[in-house]
From TrEMBL:
Domain YvlB/LiaX N-terminal: 14-43
Lineage of the species this protein comes from: Bacteria, Bacillati, Bacillota, Bacilli, Bacillales
UniProt superkingdom: Bacteria
Sequence ranges assigned to domain DUF4097 in this UniProt record: 142-369
InterPro entries: Toastrack_DUF4097, UCP012569, YvlB/LiaX_N
Protein name stated in the entry: DUF4097 domain-containing protein
Region entry Disordered, spans: 42-94
Ranges of Polar residues composition bias in the record: 70-84
Length: 403
């Protein structure tokens, strides 16, 4: 066998040995590349070189790699365990990066889909038609009224005519022309009268309906108004029980009379003027509450907003006002006889009334409290409780309204 063949055979054996050492975990890929480059650069000289020299170089490199691995892990596990852990680590890294890549692709697709939907939504909102419509119904012993609006403001007004009239100004989205818009409006609107109950409802949030409801002036058993997004205005309404609920929108009522008034909104102020009821309950999460008039019992709550209760004349039996971040103003008649308690955690209280008799008072850093009585010219006693967490409490005469 010639020297050239012997040299080629030796180089092939060396390459094979290097690859075997990589597979066994004795050499890293970078170290193997360095050895292979050195072997190639040696060329014919590698044939004359002793195979033991390459073996020694490979062994030295492997020893350094093993020593480095042992110093890192701090253990002396056998070679097969290191090889298994190395393969598992490589496999785990591949899986991890594959998952990252797949997650990135999914996120990218999600963002693109969301952007397309937003563009479609913008087009659908800007693409709309106006649809005016009027519903009319003769007053056939209507005793109860139920109004349910998905999107849009509502006005309910008592008038002297003997019929119910509902005037609608609708803006219908996602339609091409007025005929399609009118059909969509009528398909998603209910106007009916049955067994003394008058119902009017818009069921779709893809149309905004400005609604004005005229009802005959008389005393109703129950009036209910529910609005998802929109404000409610009521004028000169007489009902044994009036219920107003909105999710997003203020409530403005004037000239309300009856046995009970319930007002509730998530986002919006509540304002009631010229009230005359036996009981009123008003609650909002974000907004002020302002009630002026007369009610035997008043229960007012606001999470984020001031509460103002102005009692026009004597006769109120109980006032309960609770706030979290707002002030409380209770304006009482000069003749009021009061048995009251005021509390504030971080605020203060002011009782601007004559004839106050303090029963108990506590003034701590995080708790201020006073129980008091006041003797007025009224024979009956008003029970008053005002409680706020971070605001202040003001009890004044009715002509000294708090700002």
């Amino acid at each position: 066998m010639t020297d050239e063949k012997i040299g080629g055979l030796t180089m092939n054996q060396d390459r094979k040995r290097i690859l075997e050492m990589v597979q066994e975990g004795k050499l890293s890929a970078q170290e193997a590349i360095i050895l292979l480059d050195a072997l190639e650069d040696g060329g014919g000289d590698a044939a004359d070189a002793k195979p033991a020299s390459l073996e020694k170089q490979s062994t030295d490199t492997a020893s350094k790699a093993e020593s480095k691995a042992e110093s890192t892990t701090g253990s002396t596990g056998d070679t097969s365990w290191q090889q298994s852990k190395s393969k598992e680590s490589d496999s785990g890294d591949d899986t991890f990066y594959t998952q990252i890549e797949q997650a990135g692709e999914r996120i990218f697709d999600f963002v693109n889909t969301a952007l397309r939907k937003i563009k479609d939504l913008d087009w659908q909102i800007t693409q709309s038609v106006e649809v005016p419509h009027v519903f009319q119904q003769a007053d056939e012993q209507i005793e109860r009224i139920d109004i349910d609006i998905a999107n849009g403001p509502v006005r309910v007004i008592a008038w002297d005519q003997q019929e119910v009239r509902v005037e609608c100004q609708a803006k219908v989205y996602r339609v091409e022309d007025r005929d399609e818009g009118r059909s969509y409006f009528l398909d998603n609107t209910v106007f009916s009268q049955d067994n003394g109950l008058l119902c009017f409802a818009t069921k779709s949030k893809w149309m905004r309906v400005e609604t004005t409801v005229y009802i005959p002036r008389k005393i109703y058993k129950k009036i209910t108004v529910r609005i998802f997004s929109g404000e409610m205005t009521g004028e000169l309404l007489e009902s044994e029980h009036l219920i107003v609920k909105t999710t997003n929108g203020k409530v403005d009522l004037t000239g309300i009379s009856g046995k009970k008034l319930d007002v509730e909104t998530m986002n919006g102020q509540i304002k009631v003027i010229d009230l005359n009821t036996d009981q009123v309950e008003a609650e909002t999460v974000n907004g002020a509450v302002d009630v002026t008039g007369f009610s035997r019992k008043a229960d007012l709550k606001s999470f984020n907003g001031n509460i103002t209760c102005t009692l026009a004349h004597s006769g109120t039996e109980m006032v309960e006002a609770k706030a979290v971040t707002g002030n409380i103003y209770v304006n009482v008649p000069d003749s009021a006889t009061i048995d009251g308690e005021v509390r504030s955690n971080l605020g203060s209280y002011t009782l601007d009334l004559e004839g106050i008799n303090v029963l108990h008072e506590k003034k701590e850093v995080i708790q201020k409290q006073m129980k008091f009585k006041r003797s007025g010219s009224d024979d009956h006693t008003m029970y008053l409780e005002a409680d706020t967490k971070t605001g202040s409490v003001f009890i004044r005469k009715a002509n000294q309204k708090g700002e």
